[in-house]
């Protein structure tokens, strides 16, 4: 709602126009009608875009941190990585996302912009056809796979899982080259060994005799790399889908596309959940009925996942490539520091150095083409 100061601004805008009406013998009511629409809309629009963008960044980061926290708590509530319920947790999170999307379509409002102190946007049911939904299945499958694999990786080791996830550009380069004919530049390729080397160094552990050996959480490594692979395919499929202007137009915006992706992804994970963890479903249901911690963390992890992804879209859509790259890199670091504090787990010196190398490599990978272009122009 507008503040008192906002009404004051509205009154101060109105006052001189009423005076001019008296001076010119116009009907005050006609001038009052003349003043209002544009000014009222400006006041009701909320915070300026610059302020909103800053808030979107803040809540994007906060949402990502809280998702990691709630996800870890939900997995712990069902018994951790050995409980046999990790896929169930991942699927139910997308179920929360699907329910949230249906609620938005029911009320026809997307409240995400409230985080930037701006007026919420309208969000109606998309006019997508059956053919559009079929075209969306590959994207939804990859998105669901990336989500589920990430839950497994973070369930194995929340910190090392984040380090492995930082190697996503390596898989993106490979998948883009082989499957989508989008090879990275020579300079980007030169950055890939830095990322791989950082992850490899983070996997080392120093023994009592001073020698190093590989020691890491296998679940975090395997599923982290699997999540990176799915994410790489997701990027390619997303570009392919949006290249069809008719599909993009019928979706009616990125918000609707994301909502449909989560719903279809949930439907894809359901049969996989029943096939892999169906025998544990009665145990999960019983825990869900009686454990308030599981109830809370499952719902909140799903909501945070949906909202932080939407806020990331708002921010990255209006920022330049350099800002987006720095923001993504900073997010990874902040999330790792936050999860270290939440879990009480201390990174080893090798993990600290390895993650620093890998994340620096990712930042360089994101910026190298722009840096080289500016260097060529100056020459």
Short recap of the structure:
The chain is mostly helical. The chain has helices at 4-23, 28-44, 49-77, 86-107, 130-156, 158-165, 168-179, 186-202, 218-242, 245-251, 254-277, 281-290, 292-318, 321-343, 349-378; strands at residues 109-110, 121-122, 204-206, 212-214.
Characterization of this structure:
The protein is mainly α. The protein has 15 helices and four strands. It has a two-stranded antiparallel sheet with strand order 1-2. A two-stranded antiparallel sheet has the order 3-4. A hairpin with a 5-residue loop joins strand 3 (204-206) and strand 4 (212-214). The N and C termini lie far apart (54 Å). Residues 1-24 and 29-35 have low confidence and may be disordered.
- Strand-and-helix sequence, N→C? HHHHEEHHHHEEHHHHHHH
Span between termini: 54 Å
How do the strands line up in the largest sheet?
Answer: 1-2
**Percent in strands:** under 5%
Principal-axes geometry comes out as globular
Average pLDDT, rounded to a whole number, is: 82
Low-confidence stretches: 1-24, 29-35
Helix percent band: over 70%
Please count the beta strands (DSSP E, at least 2 residues each).
4
Structural class designation: mainly alpha
**Biggest sheet statistics:** 2 strands, antiparallel
Radius of gyration: 25 Å
The number of helical elements comes to: 15
Which assembly state applies to the chains in this document? Answer: single chain
């Amino acid at each position: 709602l507008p503040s008192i100061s906002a009404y004051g601004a509205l009154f101060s805008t109105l006052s001189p126009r009423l005076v001019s009406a008296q001076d010119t013998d116009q009907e005050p009511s006609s001038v009052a009608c003349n003043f209002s629409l544009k000014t009222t809309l400006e006041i009701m629009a909320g915070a300026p875009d610059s302020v909103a963008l800053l808030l979107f960044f803040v809540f994007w980061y906060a949402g990502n941190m809280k998702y990691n926290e709630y996800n870890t708590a939900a997995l712990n509530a069902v018994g951790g990585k050995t409980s046999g319920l990790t896929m169930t947790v991942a699927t139910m999170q997308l179920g929360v996302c699907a329910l949230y999307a249906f609620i938005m379509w029911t009320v026809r409002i997307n409240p995400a912009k409230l985080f930037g102190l701006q007026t919420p946007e309208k969000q109606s049911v998309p006019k997508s056809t059956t053919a559009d939904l079929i075209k969306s299945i590959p994207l939804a499958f990859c998105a669901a796979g990336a989500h589920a694999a990430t839950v497994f990786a973070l369930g194995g080791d929340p910190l090392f899982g984040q380090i492995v996830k930082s190697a996503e550009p390596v898989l993106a380069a490979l998948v883009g080259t082989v499957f989508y004919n989008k090879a990275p530049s020579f300079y980007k390729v030169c950055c890939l060994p830095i990322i791989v080397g950082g992850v490899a160094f983070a996997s080392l552990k120093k023994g009592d005799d001073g020698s190093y050996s590989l020691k890491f959480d296998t679940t975090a490594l395997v599923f982290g790399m699997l999540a990176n692979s799915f994410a790489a395919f997701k990027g390619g499929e997303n570009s392919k889908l949006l290249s069809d202007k008719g599909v993009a137009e019928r979706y009616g915006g990125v918000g609707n596309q994301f909502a449909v992706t989560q719903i279809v992804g949930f439907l894809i994970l359901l049969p996989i959940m029943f096939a892999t963890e169906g025998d544990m479903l009665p145990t999960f249901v019983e825990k869900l009925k009686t454990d308030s911690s599981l109830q809370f963390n499952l719902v909140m992890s799903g909501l945070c996942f949906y909202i932080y992804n939407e806020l990331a879209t708002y921010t990255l859509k209006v920022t330049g490539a350099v800002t987006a790259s720095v923001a993504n890199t900073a997010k990874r670091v902040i999330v790792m520091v936050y999860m270290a504090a939440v879990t009480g787990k201390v990174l080893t010196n090798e993990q600290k150095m390895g993650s620093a190398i890998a994340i620096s490599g990712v930042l360089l990978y994101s910026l190298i083409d722009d840096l080289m272009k500016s260097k060529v122009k100056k020459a």
